[in-house]
TrEMBL record:
It catalyses: Preferential cleavage: (Ac)2-L-Lys-D-Ala-|-D-Ala. Also transpeptidation of peptidyl-alanyl moieties that are N-acyl substituents of D-alanine; [GlcNAc-(1->4)-Mur2Ac(oyl-L-Ala-gamma-D-Glu-L-Lys-D-Ala-D-Ala)](n)-di-trans,octa-cis-undecaprenyl diphosphate + beta-D-GlcNAc-(1->4)-Mur2Ac(oyl-L-Ala-gamma-D-Glu-L-Lys-D-Ala-D-Ala)-di-trans,octa-cis-undecaprenyl diphosphate = [GlcNAc-(1->4)-Mur2Ac(oyl-L-Ala-gamma-D-Glu-L-Lys-D-Ala-D-Ala)](n+1)-di-trans,octa-cis-undecaprenyl diphosphate + di-trans,octa-cis-undecaprenyl diphosphate + H(+). In the C-terminal section; belongs to the transpeptidase family. In the N-terminal section; belongs to the glycosyltransferase 51 family. Gene3D superfamilies: Biosynthetic peptidoglycan transglycosylase-like, DD-peptidase/beta-lactamase superfamily. The keyword Nucleotidyltransferase does not apply. One of its GO terms (molecular function) is serine-type D-Ala-D-Ala carboxypeptidase activity. It comes from Spelaeicoccus albus. Residues 76-269 form the Glycosyl transferase family domain. Residues 722-799 have a biased composition (Basic and acidic residues). It holds the Pfam family Transpeptidase. This is Membrane peptidoglycan carboxypeptidase. One of its GO terms (cellular component) is outer membrane-bounded periplasmic space. GO terms for biological process: cell wall organization; peptidoglycan biosynthetic process; proteolysis; regulation of cell shape.
Length: 799
């Protein structure tokens, strides 16, 4: 009785017949155009096919295979790996003979007998597909290699149309692809030996579907934690079987299917004489015995170094040194097999991360951010970069996590920087010295309104109608005539307003700009293409740090002071080598003399005095250091300590990274603070960290300042007049000097305790002197800003 026919059966047979006709055409074309060139027996149709065949590419252009890139710390330890296809190329001599045999047995048992295209195999497959419900492939191992190369090339170019063309299997396009692969396979066989083609095949194949294990070496490491040279018979059979359908036979997700497929490969190995019957049966009895070793990729796996990793990744993706456009640069990182040696010191990084999270924990109820970043003076090398957040690229980050790197500019993954407060005063001081003034010059630090600030580069448009900043905390009591050195040490706002009134705002801007300072959004401070109004550092309020700058930028600027005025752009990469070990060009630090050596030395020396009764008193680190605190208006809530030794420059920042927030009367890290200044939290963290790391790096004494820039110290005040009877006293009676102590006359200046509230809050709870503050917390000290636009965020609150 005849069997019923179904439409699906008829459709399948029709498709098989069409395939038969197609492969017959291919066979005819191959015989006429390749095997028997110039044969006169070809039909007219075959001749047309030959013409089409001859128009196809005659050589296969092979791109280097995608390989994983590795990012290393300065000590060679791995920070992260990057890959599109996790691949580690190996020569055939370092690949187990078992996996070579298994591959040939199951994919192309006539591999060593044909010349790239197996014509008898094509015919046999076509007939089989007509008479059998199952299908049989006819591509040789060489043709499969060609297809993989074409797909790989299309992916490397990022061209989806090329990918589709390289994988098309239906209709005329499918036939054209097969013809192209066949012609290229013949060309490949003429160019490479059989062993070389097999080696390339074993390095290019996908052995997992996902997560992207390519090549037998990466696959062996992933599934069993071994090298490809150590693969045994059942392991080799498993890998060879995966190639047919990497997703379906992935042993992690489909172990039963994978085992069935493995056993089928073992049968093939026995059938073609690669293993004995006993070896086959023994191998079949074994389990898959997987021992998965994942190869995490990307910066999310970099632990405490994740934000630095992100910075380096973005540097590669945005810097033209690594390619003409973003696509090329990303391709290089994900597919180029690079070894990226970075500047990061793992020990310093660990200490920095611990320091910030000890002061303000990751999930602190205050929600405040806290950062540390260290660069090496004279080289620009970034040694550590930490913040109290967990790195996350999630669209919905959890509490305590963030994708933003608070230490860097927006274009490199940052949020745009933070107001720097009185940390800007170092640049005002440098310009003061540049303009032939001295540290011991006296200025009137009385509070007053200043008119007519000079800005020569913009026709003096900032001659505002009155700018009168206040001082922070008990420094409000510091007024009247004082030396510039004392004003620096105590960070007296009114003293710096008086200094700036004698300078050119454009000169101050130019000093900062020469030290690499720019806004966190990437805008230059000095840009001749912009009108002056677009350059906010010409506003008088910028004297007290109203600009948003990233911590990395500030650390790099301050690093010039111990480096004799030499500024270096911050760099996170020491070297990059390609897959062949050849060194590549990397972004340079561009170190150059930015400010006069004597000015740098004198500013650097002046900032060492902040530890002597100034805003950083109590923050000593056991080696010579200079530092400057910074506090914005309380309602802005951005606090800093930036300091350096001969070998390290570190910026510490604390505040709300997403919005302005008054940190007064707040519990932070389990401690209640009535007010927070630059030294209160950031300063303590800076001290904790630098006291651990600075002794391990150059930390000698700083050079003496230029005497012509220092000037002559003021004479000490005379001792109080003695009104007692001299006959009752010893004749030399100079005891009054003991209360004076030379430059220590500050102690009688009315309110020295207030300095500590600005520079360190020794109780670490913010209570010292704050109770007598007279409400200055609510003022913020920059009322003059209202006359230039009312920007309450302008003007440093401290010191």
């Amino acid at each position: 009785m005849p069997q019923p026919t179904s439409s699906s059966f008829l459709g399948r047979k029709a498709g098989a017949l069409a395939s038969f006709i197609a492969v017959s055409c291919i066979c005819g074309v191959l015989i006429a155009g390749v095997a028997i060139p110039g044969a006169g027996i070809a039909s007219q149709g075959t001749k047309a096919g030959v013409e089409v065949f001859n128009d196809l590419p005659a050589s296969l252009h092979t791109h280097p295979l995608a390989q994983q890139s590795t990012m290393l710390a300065s000590d060679g330890s791995v920070i992260a790996k990057f890959y599109w296809e996790n691949r580690i190329e190996k020569p055939l001599g370092k690949i187990s003979r078992h996996v070579q045999d298994a591959t040939v047995a199951t994919e192309d048992n006539r591999y060593f007998k044909h010349g790239g295209v197996d014509l008898s195999g094509i015919a046999r497959a076509a007939v089989h597909n007509i008479v059998s419900p199952s299908t049989q492939g006819a591509s040789t191992l060489t043709q499969q290699y060609v297809k993989n190369v074409l797909v790989e090339s299309a992916h490397s170019k990022g061209n989806s149309d090329d990918v589709a063309e390289a994988t098309q299997s239906q209709g005329a396009s499918g036939i054209a692809r097969k013809m192209r692969e066949a012609k290229l396979a013949v060309a490949v066989e003429k160019k490479f030996s059989k062993k070389e083609i097999l080696n390339r095949y074993l390095n290019i194949n996908n052995y997992s579907g996902s997560p992207n294990q390519y090549g037998v070496e990466a696959a062996a490491r992933h599934y069993w934690g071994i090298s490809a040279k150590d693969l045994n018979v059942p392991q080799s059979a498993l890998l060879a079987g995966i190639v047919q359908n990497p997703s379906q036979y992935n042993p992690e997700r489909h172990p039963k299917d994978a085992k069935v497929r493995r056993n089928a490969v073992l049968n093939k190995m026995y059938q073609y004489g690669y293993i004995s019957e006993q070896e086959r049966d023994k191998a079949k009895k074994t389990g898959l015995d997987l021992d998965i070793h994942n190869t995490p990729r990307g910066c999310v796996t970099a632990g405490t170094s994740a934000y630095f990793c992100d910075y380096v990744q973005r540097t590669i993706e945005t810097n033209p040194v690594f390619g003409k456009n973003v696509r090329q640069r990303k391709n290089l990182l994900d597919r180029g097999g690079l070894t990226i040696k970075t500047t990061l010191d793992p020990s310093m990084q660990s200490k920095a991360k611990h320091a910030v999270e000890s002061r303000i924990p990751n999930k602190d109820s205050s929600g405040l951010g806290h950062t540390l970043v260290t660069v090496e003076p004279g080289t620009g090398r970034i040694m550590a970069m930490a913040q109290n957040r967990t790195y996350s690229q999630s669209d919905k980050p959890t509490r305590g996590s963030s994708a933003l790197n608070y230490n860097v500019d927006r274009r490199l993954g940052g949020g745009g920087g933070f107001q720097v407060g009185s940390a800007w005063k170092a640049f005002v001081l440098a310009d003061w010295l540049k303009e032939d003034h001295q540290l011991y010059d006296k200025v009137d630090a009385s509070r007053s309104n200043y008119y007519g600030f000079r800005s020569s580069c913009d026709n003096h448009r900032y001659a505002v109608n009155g700018y009168g900043p206040k001082n922070a905390g008990d420094s409000e009591g510091k007024n009247g005539p004082m030396t510039v050195l004392e004003g620096t040490k105590l960070s007296v706002n009114t003293a710096f307003a008086a200094m700036a009134s004698k300078l050119d705002m454009c000169g101050i801007r130019d000093i900062a700009s020469s030290l690499g300072v720019h806004t966190g959004t990437g805008k230059a401070l000095k840009d001749d293409k912009l009108p002056g109004g677009a350059q906010r550092v010409l506003y008088p309020s910028s004297i007290l740090g109203s600009e948003n700058i990233s911590p990395l930028t500030m650390a790099s600027a301050y690093a010039a002071f111990p480096a004799d005025g030499k500024y270096c752009r911050p760099v996170g990469i020491d070297s990059v080598t390609d897959r062949n070990g050849k060194k590549m060009k990397v972004p340079g630090a561009g170190c150059h003399q930015a400010i006069d050596k004597h000015i740098a030395e004198t500013v650097g020396w002046a900032l060492t005095k902040t530890f002597d009764g100034g805003t950083t008193e109590g923050l000593e680190i056991g080696v010579p250091a200079g530092a400057k605190t910074g506090t914005t208006n309380f309602e802005v809530g951005s606090t800093w300590t930036i300091g350096y030794t001969k070998g390290l420059a570190t910026a510490a920042w604390a505040g709300n990274p997403l919005k302005n927030q008054d940190m007064s009367d707040t519990t932070i890290g389990g401690t209640y603070y009535s007010a927070v200044y630059g030294a209160t939290i950031a300063g303590k963290t800076w001290q904790d960290y630098m006291s651990q790391v600075a002794p391990n790096h150059p930390h000698g004494a700083f050079a003496d300042p230029d005497k012509s820039l220092v000037g002559t110290p003021p004479a000490p005040p005379p001792p109080p007049k003695d009104t007692t009877d001299d006959s009752d006293k010893p004749s030399d009676g100079d005891s009054g000097d003991k209360s004076d102590g030379g430059d220590n006359g500050d102690k009688s200046d009315g309110g020295d305790n207030g300095d500590k509230s600005d520079g360190g809050n020794k109780s670490d709870g913010g209570d010292n002197g704050d109770k007598s503050d007279g409400g200055d917390k609510s003022d913020g000290g920059d009322n003059g800003d209202k006359s230039i636009g009312g920007d309450k965020s302008h003007g440093g609150h401290d010191g």
